[in-house]
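Fig. S4 source data, part A: sequence.
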Amino acid sequence: MLMSRPLTLRPRPWSALPVILVPVFVTTLDFFIANVAMPSIRADLGSGSAGTQLVTAAYGLAYAAGLLISGRLGDVYGARRMFVLGLALFTLASVLCGVAPSMPALIAARVLQGSAAAILSPQVLTLLGAAYRGPDRKRAFGWYGTATGLAGISGQVIGGLLVSADLGGLGWRACFLLNLPIGVATLAMTRLLPELPSGPDSVLPSGRRGRVDVVGAALVAGGLTALVMPFVLGPELGWPGWVWLPVVAAVPLLTAFGHRQRSGEVEPLLDLGVFLAPGFVAGLAGVALLFASSAGLSFVLALYLQDGAGMSPVSAAAIFTSLNAGFFAASLRAPRRPLTGALLLAGGLCALVVVIGSGLPYLLVGCLLVAGAGMGALMSPLIAGTLAGVRPERAGAAAGVLGTVQEAGGVLGGTVAGAALLGSLDHGWDVAGRAGAVVVAVFALGVLVVVARRR
């Protein structure tokens, strides 16, 4: 975003950091928290494999598809204003998820929840970029990476504890209703956020100021949805040949979106200049694969441990505490080394493929401890390094692109790994669990290749 006058910041900008990062935590958490609650949701509302995957995919797709247009909305109407709007809508959508009477109602509420998260998310990096400069900016982005990573690996534990506690007889619904008090408290503190000029203060081409490319947003949303749908529908339908037709349809949709961004006929949703920032494209590849491995691991183990190994939600959550422990131990050490983290992540998840089906929980714990340490050592420096070369005036564009890639990677990771697991259930849970774990390990190996090449 280009501006004609300096930013006006509130005093003591570090007081704004929790206000910015708490929504980052809960919006990321809600991508993963539904996984551990899925067996309870399936039993309560009834669902086949497609509905099971859509509870997670609907949120992630709405999130990913809405990020680019939301970054543009922040440029036009103000990042602070859109942050508050997104947080309010996310809180409302979370309540709708928590009271959903049926699986279709839950999926619809998850679409709204993901859309609200998309409105909020791009504004986060814009606000961080505005509030902090120099070493403080790097530190703030580091905390952003830590909050994102911690939320990703905490979903299983928090979800398992909430479902097992059965607070007020709510069961799985507490996983979503928890966002109500968090959202209300955070909304009350948004006065601490920095003020940014918007709309008329932005330097936009004459005649386009304030316009938002809705057609472009629809094209990218349709393209992303088409890429994912075969993996959602395939396991339940028996993988008929026509199930791959949406992938074919995705090509012209995404091609048309790219052409529209370059045409000059509309104010683009995507600032193509952001891809020229040093290390940005390679960093995006690493982020996509990292979140694919994290989301895939969450989905596969949630179903395998509960439906396959017969564990309770709290027992499954206890297994996942090793992932958290590894993440904490590595993320608190300085300096964090991306290559070391990628090696640990790939090693832990490759070992997991062998360990699944052994009947030895302590081996699962060891693999997750190593993988968690890899995530902790890798997450923050990878995100910070991806954004390091981006100029401040392109922070909104970079935030939209990074968030889209992050969420799209998570959706594809969860759906592809989930499809491998659900499509192999005829051969038993151990085979299915290994099939899903193989997909997750491949993603982790991809992260290792990207990080090694960036050195």
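Fig. S4 source data, part B ends here. The CA atoms of residues 136 and 197 lie 22 Å apart.
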